[in-house]
Automatic annotation (TrEMBL):
Keyword tags: FAD, Flavoprotein, Oxidoreductase, Transit peptide
EC number(s) recorded for this UniProt protein: 1.3.8.6
GO biological process annotation, one example: fatty-acyl-CoA biosynthetic process
Protein name, as recorded: glutaryl-CoA dehydrogenase (ETF)
Entry similarity comment: Belongs to the acyl-CoA dehydrogenase family.
A Pfam match: Acyl-CoA_dh_M
Cofactor(s) for this UniProt protein: FAD
Cleavable signal peptide: none
Domain annotation Acyl-CoA dehydrogenase/oxidase N-terminal: ranges: 16-128
Domain Acyl-CoA dehydrogenase/oxidase C-terminal stretches: 235-381
């Protein structure tokens, strides 16, 4: 039997029946609803909001959270497969789901009160309330401890001043999970759209994640009630815990982008005739295609083991860093190589490779740059902090 070109080690056979069903459902959604429109959305710089309701109906928002809050209660591997299939469509769509699920719903569930969970999670799972995550600041970047946004206690309220940058979903959001310095350390707050002094400004002129909303957030004496403070965490471990959840999904997502690029390049190289034979008949093309398949296979195995560790409660942040670093680098290199194999046709968004390559410039940067994750592994190996 011939091997599946995008699953050379039959990773799918290691999935449970439920995990395969989840992957198939999201794959169908991507094929039928995302791929027909996503090239135009990218060209137009438009997030396809019309898909949010369908994403929610499929149970993809907060998919791993308990059913008590209207969520699907899926395992970590299923969530990884969701990210993989969505990013096969576009990184922007996977980013939307990642932010809603891992950076907004997760901290409300993990760090919030039961009242806060009941108040927000069911509507977020249903796509009725959209969230964004306010951690990164213009001057801070990879150093979140250098946070300037400050929340000061004032009676029964908190008053927040500062700003956040590069915030996915910012102008879509009904709520923002915002991290701010306080006299008692860093704390999280749920800031609601319409609170006086809170504003979001969409960032334009992007060449990456164009089918996604990216914003700057501004807080000018924003008064937030104590009921909106996340009570169960203080310090950087709060936002860093959220980032570990998001990075886990990001480790899976680029596999989908890489598969989309390989699929396109493989089909194109079989049809494109040069010097009397298909491009796929040349040794140079076959070596490139084979190397892409090798790297995708390694990323699939890495992510599956990471997911099994997460489901067993054994996953460590350093392991997430390794997978995020490896898989983002794998995908961006493959996207660029596929763009090259497509020749002149590869520079248009009628083909997926250039869109994925541009998107992956953001994916390899956010939730910790490649260098940050390399240094995380370096510190783990040597015991020396080189940040």
């Amino acid at each position: 039997m011939a091997l599946h070109p995008y699953d050379l080690y039959d990773v799918r056979s290691q999935l449970s029946e439920e995990e395969r069903a989840v992957q198939d459902a999201v794959a169908r959604f991507t094929d039928e609803r995302v791929l027909p429109i996503i090239g135009d959305a990218f060209d137009q710089g438009r997030f396809p909001k019309e898909l949010v309701g369908e994403i929610a109906e499929l149970g993809l928002l907060g998919a791993t959270l308990p059913e008590d809050y209207g969520c699907a209660g899926l395992n970590a591997v299923s969530y990884g497969l969701i990210c993989q299939e969505l990013e096969r469509g576009d990184s922007g769509l996977r980013s939307f789901v990642s932010v809603q699920s891992s950076l907004c719903m997760y901290p409300i569930h993990a760090y919030g009160s039961e009242e806060q969970r009941r108040r927000w999670l069911p509507d977020m799972a249903a796509g009725k309330v959209i969230g964004c995550f306010g951690l990164t600041e213009p001057h801070g970047g990879s150093d979140p401890a250098n946070m300037k946004t400050f929340a000061k206690k004032d009676g029964g309220d908190w008053v927040i001043n500062g700003g956040k940058m590069w915030i996915t979903n910012g102008n879509l959001a009904d709520i923002a999970v915002v991290w701010a310095q306080t006299d008692e350390g860093i704390q999280g707050f749920v800031v609601e759209k319409g609170m006086p002094g809170f504003a979001a400004q969409e960032i334009k002129h992007k060449m990456s994640l164009r089918a996604s909303v990216t914003s700057a957030l501004f807080f000018d004496n924003v008064r937030v009630p104590e009921a909106n403070r996340l009570p169960n965490v203080k310090g950087l471990k709060g936002p860093l815990g959220c980032l570990t959840q998001a990075r886990y999904g990001i480790a899976w997502g680029p596999i989908g982008a890489a598969i989309a690029c390989l699929d396109e390049a493989l089909n194109y190289s079989k049809e494109r005739m040069l010097f009397g034979r298909p491009v796929a008949a040349t040794q140079s093309a076959q070596i490139k295609l084979a190397d892409m398949a090798r790297r995708i296979t390694l990323a699939q195995l890495l992510s599956l083991q990471l997911g099994r560790l997460k489901d067993a409660g054994k996953m460590q942040p350093q392991q997430v860093s390794l997978a995020k670093w490896n898989n983002c680098r794998m995908a961006i290199d493959i996207a660029r190589e596929c763009r090259d194999l497509l020749g002149g046709a590869g520079i248009t968004t009628e083909h997926a490779a250039i869109r994925h390559a541009l998107n992956l410039e953001s994916v390899i940067t956010y939730e910790g740059t490649e260098t940050v994750h390399q240094l995380v592994i370096g510190r783990e190996l040597t015991g020396i902090n080189a940040f």
